[in-house]
Known about the structure:
This protein has about 190 residues and is α/β, with parallel strands linked by helices. The protein has one domain: 3-Layer(aba) Sandwich (Rossmann fold), CATH 3.40.50. It contains eight helices and five strands.
Amino acid sequence: MTVTFSAYSSKLQRVLADADWSAVEMLAQAMLTCWQAKRQIFLCGNGGSAGNAIHLANDFLYGIAKKSGAGMRATALAANPAVLTCLANDVGYDAIFSEQLAVHAQAGDILIALSGSGNSPNIVRAIEQAKAMGVTSCAVLGYSGGTCKNIADIAIHFPVDDMQIAEDMQLIVGHMLMQWLYAHRPQG
């Protein structure tokens, strides 16, 4: 099968047209409450999803306020290679995010997990760790949604069997949240 640019564009348009945005609205409200309470947002993902998590942490830290010191406290758990390699070596790759949450997170914070499949052991463990600590867990998922669809407090699921479109949707959701939060940013 030959993949064409118009076929990719059409598939992405179908996913967007068929999406239920109610879970994104729930996450937006939770993030606004978190921001107003000066709580933290943690993001995690593997591969391209890790890159998306790092990108979105930047958007939430600065882009939602565009004013020094007024953004959201946002951390991408994949951003520190020394921590990742230490944890992967000492306790196992499946604990690279959950171990960081155990140290940094507190009840009232939010975890946003980005995963194509929703079945990566380190993503599943991160959500389980978040839930154990009273951290609201959200997962942005593709394919069937996997285990994460069933265990996340807020599951944003796009049932598409295409990793690139699943990763596109992670950034689209993140940018929707960024613009919504900017429009609702605390004044002062």
